[in-house]
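User: For a benchmark we're assembling, each entry needs the component sequences followed by a predicted structure for the full assembly. Here are entry 17's components. Please fill in the structure.
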Amino acid sequence: MRVTTEDNVGTINVFTHLKRGRYFTQNFARIGAMGERAMTVDRIYAMPFYLGSRTLIDRLAINVTIEVEFSSARIGIYASLLDKTLPGALLVDKEVATDTPGIKEDTTVSVSLSGNRIYWLAFLCEDVITVKTTRTPPWILGVHLVENSVTPEIIQYLYATQLWIPDEPLPNPFPTLANLSFGSPSTDGDEGPAIWFRTAP
Amino acid sequence: MKPRLHDSRLMFNRFFTCVNIGTYNNYFPMGGNCIDDGASLSFAPTANFIFAGPIWLPRDFLLKQYGVIVDTVGSNGRNMAYGIYNDSKVLSDDVRYPGTKIDQNNHANITTTGFYSKTLSTPILLKGNRLYWGVLASDGTGSINVKSSAAILNVLGFQFGDATFPLVSKRGYQVSWTYNSTLVTPFPSSATDQRFIPTIYMREPNQNGS
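Assistant: Structure for entry 17:
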């Protein structure tokens, strides 16, 4: 039987059915305590996640633990490029104030994402705020190995230099491959910023 | 069918979506079946035993390089061989057991830790939605530990064990086999369940073909 990209019949998608009205991050498996760390300014982070079925997203959020006065951050969603596991076109772009600690949420998102796709959650901040972080599962971006090393590193996210310009949206499309770097524990910290998306009720 | 290795939008029709990107070497522990980095345990393979762990590939995978991480070594230098095997489903569709050898490599007198691997000059196409097996054996010279995962796709299920571990996850097989640098094919019969198995790291070609 032929399996099409839009028809889940015949597929074995673990993440086909996300409960409506709930929040999820790029790490579907992790339900316990999360990490936190300071984010680098003028750097756009992209964390991949997989959707098994068509899903309407209506909210995006981050959790700020150490704020900076008068600061903001931009959060969004990118589609994957057609032929690579890389972020491509910008689908959602929202700005949230990060001048107080706690959940910073945008409730005006309305985007329908197709199933059987990888998408990317994106983050860019104006000042060095600290946010909750989480890990990306290793089956999308794999691990990084070097000869003679006995320590593989799960690739957590991709990032690129992106200047913060007030009122400017996230770049569209995402910076090209030549300008990308991998986020791995030894060089960039253990985890990427956790971005919550809500499935519409 | 021509493999559409980078046509990820069409290819990731399953849970595991491993696609290499860029000019980096992105490895997938047990083909992407590990929930962790594949290195959370250090496993001492028994001398003159051959081990096999299941690798389920969700899509076509062009195997360019594969290997294991040796994280502890003894002084005398152990000999080790590892490879990729087919599943034996050609014999029976409902028995998951390693079958014939696809490719292998060996290293003699291992006295240093590191990533031991084989890079294929001509990549091998492994078909998607099929089960393969990562295999490793070593002799009784010296000692080594290799990286192993605490959590992989549970193809072999749980089985009743003892009072301490009433239901034990079965991650692979082991069977006695007198070491030879050329791995046996097909995989020997009568293997027993094994809780821990060496992690095989696999990658596809980079975009520049390396």
